[in-house]
Amino acid sequence: MSRVVVEYNPPISRETQKVIREEVTPSMISNDETSCQYEITAVADVLIELEELGNTKDLFLINDLINQGVHYIEF
Questions:
Q1: What predicted TM-score, i.e. pTM, was given to this entire model?
Q2: Is residue 67 part of a domain?
């Protein structure tokens, strides 16, 4: 059996959320379009590429979630 782990509303900055929305294609969009799920390694890849944003705190959080076995983030 396999499980998919989703971290709902992780405490990442609004700036980083905006970057994710603009740069990462969502894997799922809710029916009412109020939230999306993003594959977490795709998020990490984009944040690493755009590290000049200076928000290493959010990248650290994403990497920590990956280490905890999270597959998707949703916000």
A1: 0.89
A2: yes
Print burial letters for 24-41: b (CB count within 10 Å at least 16), e (below 16). bebbeeeeeeeebbbbbe
Averaged confidence pLDDT in the chain: 93
What's the domain count of the chain? 1
For residues 44 and 62, the answer to whether their CB atoms sit within 8 Å is: yes
Please indicate, yes or no, if residue 33 is contained in any of the structural domains: yes
Residue 28 lies in a domain: yes
Q: Which residues contact 62 (CB under 8 A, 6 or more apart)?
A: 10, 12, 40, 43, 44, 47, 73
User: How crowded is residue 69: how many other Cβ atoms within 10 Å of its Cβ?
Assistant: 9
Instruction: For residue 58, give its domain range.
Output: 6-74
1 lies in some domain: no
